[in-house]
Amino acid sequence: MNRSMERIPGATSARRPAAMVGDPSTVSLSGVEKVYQTDRIETIALSDINLEVRAGEFIAVMGPSGSGKSTLLNILGLLDAPTQGQVSLQGRPIDGYGDRELARLRNEDIGFIFQTFHLIHDLDVLDNVQLPLLYRRLPARTRRQMAEVALDRVGLDSRRHHFPSQLSGGQQQRVAIARAVVGTPKLLLADEPTGNLDSRMGEEIMQLLEEYNRDVGTTVVMVTHDQRLAERTERIVRLFDGRQVH
Question: What is the dihedral of CA 19, 21, 22, 25, to 10 degrees?
């Protein structure tokens, strides 16, 4: 699957310089707590989380159901804000960013992969992959070229005009990966990306994530229940009842 990344307008090089702390992809959490509150109950999803994700790392997040893994991913991806504590990008707290700037960062610097794919079934594969680029107001030709390169990299260029319902689960997840990386994000967040796949398909998806991390330099944070896959990453962050455990 070692496909080269063509140089096209709007795309970055397939290889980046060695990662350093302070690179734009670095995210750090300090004393982060997340509480969900209703009229009757208060649920502490995360408590006193201190974590630095360094540029170029591949990190696995593990823990039982309800331990706060998805909440942690949402905060890292700027989809949710902590109740207490600080989230920083490049050493700058996110409370220093406005809503428009946060939206731009999510679109340009962060890619999301979900267990259930979240593809739009009325759009073909090519249009699904192009979708994040619409918000950048790129020319249609550039969007198409970037989507074709992303699909070729995941081995699905020949399926560009198929619809999600015509694909296997593993193929749909590869489309979802192509959509997540089409804009060359610095940080890729994957929430149980192999959870709905058999072991063979899961291995293919893991190899793709490893390839993006190794060859493109993308920082990857992956939630998984699979100890075998987690042991292939650089380090494992374990959660239990919303707290980090060692």
Answer: 50
- Residue 15: its pLDDT value, please? 36
In the chain, the number of structural domains is 1
β-bridge partners, 86: 30
Q: Identify how many contiguous H helices and E strands the chain contains and give both numbers.
A: 7, 10
Q: Which of 130-134, 161-165, 194-198, 218-222 has the lowest mean pLDDT?
A: 194-198
Domain that holds residue 61: 27-245
CB-facing half-sphere around the CA of 71: CA atoms within 13 A: 24
Residue 201 contacts residue 170 (beta carbons within 8 Å):
yes
| Tens-place pLDDT, residues 56-88 | 999 999 999 999 999 999 999 999 999 999 999
> Which CATH number fits the domain that encloses residue 35?
3.40.50.300
Is 157 inside a domain boundary? yes
**Which residues contact residue 14 at a Cβ distance below 8 angstroms, ignoring those fewer than 6 apart?**
4, 5, 215, 216
DSSP bridge pairs for 46: 34
Q: Please report how the helices 125-134 and 140-153 are oriented relative to each other, as an axis angle in degrees rounded to 10.
A: 120
Longest dimension (CA), the chain: 55
* Residue 101: inside a domain: yes
